[in-house]
Amino acid sequence: MKKSSILLFIIYVSSFLSSFLTNRRPFWYHQLKKPIFTPTGYTIGFVRSILYFFIALAVSIINDRHRYNSQTKRFFSLCITNFLCNQAFSLLFFRLKLLLFGIINTMLIALTAVDLVKKELGRCQK
């Protein structure tokens, strides 16, 4: 349990630190043509905090419940890829303004998330 608590703390703190990669004055972002349902920056920050908490919690739970083997190695590889892509989004989209890479990064996040869910559902059904 102590190892999982440390892992949870490391993931959550690194998520918090990555928030500093976001440009604090994104004037260009406000000028983009966005759909009417686009959430405010405060909403996105709040949701991302919750998202990172659940990512960290899921990794901690899996770490506690499963012995390390080839399946968990693949699962952790997907978790790390998903986590790093989540961290990179702020840098790519807001700081560097690389919209195409932001979209590609978002697709990687979605694909790894779907793969993670499929893997865990498959594991639960066995």
Architecture overview:
- This protein starts with a helix and ends with a helix.
- Helix 3 packs antiparallel against helix 4 (70-95) and helix 4 packs antiparallel against helix 5.
- It contains five helices and no strands.
- Helices cover 79% and strands 0% of the residues.
- It is mainly α and 126 residues long.
- The protein has helices at residues 2-18, 27-31, 41-65, 70-95, 99-125.
Distance between the termini: 25 Å
Main beta sheet strand tally, sense and closure: none
Helix-strand pattern, N to C?
HHHHH
Oligomer: single chain
Structural class: mainly alpha
Radius of gyration over alpha carbons?
16 Å
> Strand percentage, roughly?
under 5%
Topology, number of strands: 0
Give the CA-based shape: elongated
Mean of residue pLDDT? 78
**Unreliable stretches, pLDDT < 50, 5 or more residues?**
none
Q: What's the total helix number?
A: 5
In helices, the fraction of residues equals over 70%
Quick tags:
5 helices, 126 residues, mainly alpha
Short description:
With 126 residues, this protein is an all-alpha fold. The radius of gyration is 16 Å and the shape is elongated.
Write the SSE topology.
Blueprint: H1 2-18, H2 27-31, H3 41-65, H4 70-95, H5 99-125
Helix pairs in contact: 1-3, 3-4, 4-5
